[in-house]
């Protein structure tokens, strides 16, 4: 179902500073929907690792203290929020697409596939989704895309926390297998240390001395 067919009167120009955390959830509920999932992903920018998406259904009217756009939070605050979301949410779903599949299908399609997997893993299944971004998600459920939705919708903020922490934990696990790249610190992003490690590894491969 195309996003323009769903609640087309959403006020796109409204600033996140001008609305409360449940503004969009309230609009959706006024349209008759009850189980509303916020959906977001983490991992579109890194050079290594999977893309991870999360979908979160919160109880009506609930605002979880400390939960906001994951990019504005510290690692410790995200970890606390991650636990709180799992404790209080009606349902949490996660979808993971591997680095190999990212290379095969491109990062955008991989992100949308991860979102799809997160949504369909929810139990109960949502009857409407608020999706961060501008790209249609291939699910047979009514939804609305929200640009910068992780700042504008509390449900999407919760999903952003889950996706970020889940992916970070994957990268820390990969660090145990590939410590040379520093994944526990850079999480696969192209930091100076990560890029230097890649150059060194490439040099070693040319010499035939790489592990």
Explain this structure to me?
The chain has 211 residues and is α/β, with parallel strands linked by helices. 43% of the residues lie in helices and 14% in strands. The protein has 8 helices and 5 strands, in the order αββαβααββαααα. A 5-stranded mixed β-sheet has the order 3-2-1-4-5. Helix 2 (75-88) packs across helix 6 and helix 3 packs across helix 4. It is elongated and about 65 Å long.
Helical stretch tally: 8
Straight-line distance between termini: 49 Å
| Model regions low in confidence, pLDDT < 50 over at least 5 residues | 1-6
Sequence of secondary-structure elements: HEEHEHHEEHHHH
Question: Major sheet: order of its strands?
Answer: 3-2-1-4-5
Helix fraction, binned, reads: 40-55%
Globally, the shape reads elongated
Number of strands: 5
| Gyration radius, in Å | 18 Å
Largest sheet, in brief, is: 5 strands, mixed
Strand content: 5-15%
Oligomer: single chain
Rounded mean pLDDT score:
89
The structure class reads alpha/beta
Features:
elongated, 211 residues, single chain, 5-stranded mixed β-sheet, alpha/beta, disordered N terminus, 43% helix, 14% strand
Note the topology.
Blueprint: H1 23-30, E1 36-42, E2 51-57, H2 75-88, E3 91-97, H3 99-105, H4 107-120, E4 128-132, E5 143-146, H5 149-152, H6 154-177, H7 183-186, H8 192-207
Parallel strand pairs: 1-4, 4-5
Antiparallel strand pairs: 1-2, 2-3
Helix pairs in contact: 2-6, 3-4
Quick structural gist:
The protein has 211 residues and is α/β, with parallel strands linked by helices. The chain has helices at residues 23-30, 75-88, 99-105, 107-120, 149-152, 154-177, 183-186, 192-207; strands at residues 36-42, 51-57, 91-97, 128-132, 143-146.
């Amino acid at each position: 179902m195309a996003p323009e067919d769903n609640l087309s009167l959403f006020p796109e120009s409204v600033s996140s500073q001008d609305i409360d955390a449940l503004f969009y959830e309230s609009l959706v509920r006024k349209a008759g929907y009850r189980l509303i999932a916020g959906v977001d992903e983490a991992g579109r920018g890194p050079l290594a690792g999977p893309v991870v998406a999360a979908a979160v259904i919160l109880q009506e009217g609930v605002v979880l203290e400390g939960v906001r756009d994951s990019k504005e939070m510290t690692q410790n605050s995200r970890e606390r929020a991650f636990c709180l979301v799992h404790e209080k949410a009606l349902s949490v779903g996660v979808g993971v697409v591997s680095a190999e599949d990212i290379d095969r299908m491109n990062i955008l399609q991989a992100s949308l596939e991860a979102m799809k997997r997160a949504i369909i893993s929810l139990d109960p299944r949502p009857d409407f989704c608020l999706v961060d971004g501008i790209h249609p998600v291939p699910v047979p459920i009514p939804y609305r895309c929200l640009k910068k939705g992780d700042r504008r919708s509390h449900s999407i903020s919760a999903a952003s926390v889950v996706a970020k922490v889940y992916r970070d934990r994957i990268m820390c696990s990969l660090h145990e297998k590939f410590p040379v790249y520093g994944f526990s610190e850079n999480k696969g992003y192209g930091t100076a240390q990560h890029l230097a490690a890649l150059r060194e590894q490439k040099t070693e491969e040319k010499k035939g001395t790489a592990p």
